[in-house]
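Bug report (template v2)

What were you trying to do?
Predict the complex of my protein with glycinamide ribonucleotide.

What happened?
Run completed; filing so the output is reviewed.

Input:
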Amino acid sequence: MKLAVAILISGSGSNMVQLIKSMDDNHPAYPSVVISNKSDAPGLEKAQSLGVPTKIIDENCIKNNDLDFEKELIKILKVYNVELICLAGFMKILSKKFVNNFKDRILNIHPSLLPKYRGLNTHARVLASNDTIAGCSVHLVTPELDGGPVLAQTEVAIKKNETVESLASKVLIEEHILYPKVLLNFSDQIRKLEV
Ligand code: GAR
């Protein structure tokens, strides 16, 4: 049986698109649902056009903060029998309890060479530090923000007149290659462990 994957997004969903496209007939996993915490995330339409069900958990409508958000999230994950979660530009921090419940079953992509530059505004901080190499990382999610074990990274050279925008788009191209590769290996590993 294929592994059911949920992809969580907040925005454009370009990584999500690459993950969905990578899960072809021979892949050990399939995209079971795309969930967004933003009702206007452009990624929602892209997921629908690729035939993947979408769900919105609108933070503005969730009165009782994070707990209610995660209750709703767990309900959806159960309905779709989700076994693996991929965060793809999902800009909400998940609670320690939630993350521990899905231990070793949540992946994230981050636009830096972790452990450097956890958190937001990664590219601006890279440039301000006069680094010569940037990149992206796929890591397991633990309760520590962007602090879980790194599964794979790709480096990108920083040019002299690099801007935040030019660096972000170079790194994003590498993210689109790296994340599907890691998902494939990781899904294979999970399936092997279960045999
Ligand atoms: C990507 O660059 C991803 O690495 C980053 O947001 C962008 C989402 O783009 N994620 C984070 O910064 C998480 N801390 P996408 O919606 O087009 O995939």
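What did the reviewer find?
The beta strands are 3-9, 29-36, 54-56, 84-87, 106-110, 133-140, 150-157. Residues 9, 11-15, 43, 88-89, 109-111, 172, 175 surround glycinamide ribonucleotide (CB under 6 Å).
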